[in-house]
Specification:
The protein is mainly alpha-helical and 364 residues long. It has helices at 2-22, 36-57, 59-70, 78-97, 102-128, 136-142, 150-160, 167-180, 183-196, 201-217, 222-227, 229-232, 234-255, 260-264, 271-280, 294-318, 327-339, 348-362. α3 packs antiparallel against α16 (294-318).
């Protein structure tokens, strides 16, 4: 009985650590040869059974899973269902583990160390191709870690920053943020750190301002800053203009829908076909796979109900205990800030660990 009790206590922590370690390389894709009918009915049955559990764990996840199950039509619906079943599992692990999350925090830092190792390796790759380097962006876009995108890697470092169990890990995660050169992730990490350690807020704000200028000077010259400040800051305004254009089209498209499409959206993954149409109409100048704002994209996928659910869920988290002084809440806020200008909650390798941390926090 003693061994079984120990296994029952340790198994959820081991499973959660496995989820963390698998994050950089995790990718789910059902292979060929699966019996669609049997498999899909199995997923469908499991999905509806999990709706009740999801509501009991963290009710916003239950709402999203219920909307996804209601939209089930054929085997093409398998992906969204698996997505939300994974979300339920991640939150459930966090709730079951509860406040004893020390091992999880160390697992997060271990992944950060692995990403720093990958970044160092990518620096050596740059050295081999140095003669082909023509612009700062060539260097910046090469340092992307193993998450496939420098911003997603930066989002991981931002989430890990408030969970740092030792000052040395604060420095290492900060170094990772600098290496990925993501202003969004850097701002998110600063917010998360200020929430986790409010006594450091002034120092964090000063460091953030210095980091912003350093990042900008890597892209423009000192002369632009001193004599042409309008031109200097266009590097950020141009990027924001692209996002604003796609946000406006997304919201306008959703606002024009009626009935159940307005209230419940048109389902997970509906955004990409629309953005291809917008590109063909020359309403946007590049192809966006995501809206670069998870909440805005949620309007098309899950409608007014989904957006309201997401907002109320975040408010429920933030009102649970004191906002300041909790590393878990700092990590949650950091990834939330990134999601306002990127799409970390639409990629499983960043969304599932974040949901695990949501479960840990919700259990307090």
């Amino acid at each position: 009985m003693g061994a079984l009790a120990t296994l029952r206590d340790v198994a959820p922590i081991l499973a959660a650590i496995g989820l963390i370690f698998a994050a950089p390389v995790w990718c789910w894709r059902v292979g060929p040869g699966w019996p669609h009918t049997i498999r899909d009915w199995g997923y469908r049955t499991c999905g509806w059974l999990m709706v009740g559990l999801a509501f009991a764990l963290f009710w916003p996840i239950g709402v999203f899973l219920a909307i996804t199950m209601w939209r089930w039509r054929d085997h093409e619906s398998t992906g969204p269902v698996l997505t939300w079943l994974g979300a339920v599992g991640a939150v459930g692990l966090g709730v079951f583990i509860g406040p004893s999350y020390t091992a999880i925090a160390w697992a997060v830092q271990a992944v950060s160390l692995s990403q720093l190792g990958v970044l160092v390796f990518q620096v050596f790759l740059i050295r081999k191709e140095w003669h082909n380097i023509r612009h700062y962006h060539d260097i910046r876009d090469t340092l992307r870690g193993s998450f496939g995108n420098r911003v997603m890697t930066g989002a991981w470092f931002a989430m890990a920053l408030p969970l740092s169990p030792h000052p040395a890990f604060l420095a290492l995660n900060g170094l990772g943020l600098v290496a990925t050169s993501s202003m969004t992730a850097s701002a998110a990490g600063a917010v998360g750190l200020a929430v986790a350690y409010p006594q450091w807020a002034p120092t964090i704000a000063l460091s953030g301002a210095v980091g912003f200028l350093f990042n900008a000077l890597m892209r423009k010259s000192v002369g632009d800053l001193l004599y042409r400040p309008t031109r200097f800051f266009t590097i950020y305004m141009d990027s924001f203009a692209d996002r604003y254009r796609i946000w406006r089209l997304t919201l306008a498209t959703w606002w024009g829908w009626t009935g159940k499409d307005f209230w419940l959206g048109k389902g997970h993954g509906v955004f990409f076909p629309y953005t291809r149409w917008w590109l063909n109409k020359r309403w946007v100048y590049q192809l966006f796979k995501h809206a670069h704002n998870d909440l805005v994209q949620c309007t098309m996928e899950y409608g007014a109900v989904g957006v309201l659910c997401a907002i109320l869920g975040l408010l429920a988290l933030f009102s649970k205990v004191n906002l300041a002084g909790d590393p878990l809440l700092g990590a949650i806020l950091a990834m939330t800030v990134v999601s306002l200008n990127q799409f970390p909650l639409h990629t499983p390798h960043t969304a599932l660990p974040w949901l695990l941390i949501v479960g840990l926090y919700w259990s307090q």
